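Hallway conversation turned thread

IA: we were arguing at lunch whether anyone had actually written out Cyclase family protein end to end. Turns out nobody had. So, for the record, here is the sequence (207 residues) and right after it the structure tokens. Reply here if something looks off.
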Amino acid sequence: MCPVLPDFEPPKMDYICVGPRDGWKLEQVTMNLHTGTHMDAPAHLGEYSKTLDQFPVDAFQGRMVFIPLQDRGKGYPIGRSDLEPYAEQLNSDAVALLYTGWGEKRGWTKEWIYESPYLSNEGARYLAACGVKAVGIDHFSIGGTGEENEETHRIVLGADMWVAEGLQLDDPALREGDWHVMAMPLKIRDSSGAPARIVAIQWEARP
């Protein structure tokens, strides 16, 4: 299920070929590239030109900085004070993942679409100043759907970060140990973003 803003057509899947009838099974998916778990490139905003396919592959990985914020409540603006406790980890190798709890609320509801916690302009400026590689959140928009959304995107994308949205971050294991994040977007030429598989791997020390 990939709920989107009511302004957009919801994703749909059609069957072009059906096995028992046609001998082949073939599906067709229609959706915008910023649906479900996906990544934003700077070109998502018109004033920037860098598309997702222009990032080197090694830019799509880094050390996870898991930031639990699930107790902050509806519409909470994630600011500098929420991020500063992780200052020592927020550097050029960091992928900051903001866990708001909204991933578990995913649905075609007013709460899910319009009332999520979000990265505020202040919080975005702080992450940009830290020079993090990327930032992700468990909602379809890093800046929510309110008045700060566009500027939050402008700040982080203008800092040459990629953004991951629509994540699922409720696994308790993510809160402990060292994790490495790898993002694997569909490679689409000149794209402002793309659906992506984003995974975390925990390294185990050799005996």
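OS: looked through it. The mean pLDDT is 93.
IA: good, adding that to the notes. The CA atoms of residues 61 and 182 lie 4 Å apart.
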